[in-house]
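[Meeting: bench + compute handoff]

Bench side (C.D.) handed over the final construct sequence. Compute side (W.E.) agreed to return the predicted structure before the next meeting so the bench team could plan truncations. Sequence as handed over:
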Amino acid sequence: MSQLNFHSDFSSYIPPRQVLAVVEKLKQTYKLWQDFMMDFPKTSRYTLGEKIDSLFLDILELSFTANFLPKNQKLPYVIKSSSKLDLLRFFLQISWEIKSLDNKKYIVLSEKLNEIGGMFGNWIKSLSR
């Protein structure tokens, strides 16, 4: 039985598509959130903390999917990502107001999510043209 030589024929190799900056920024922000979630009080970790975590994952999934769709199919996914981002910001604000998230962590996450929101806005504009 002969072994296949995967390194000898690159003529049919298709490089993976590049992930957009917004998806990469979301991924980095989610990693930061994961660190912060560990400090959430137990009373909020499995309710509000899980809701925030779930929204992060939904946004990541939607934007990652949109990244690889044909241009004419992206817009609904990006709009949905943007609206879920607004909801995520709302729940983060609640977590800050009830002191489950301290000022410094809230500010760091808010700044990053505001930047991501701008990126979604630009993406929506470019797809709407």
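W.E. noted at the follow-up: DSSP finds four helices and no strands in the chain. C.D. will use this when planning the next construct.
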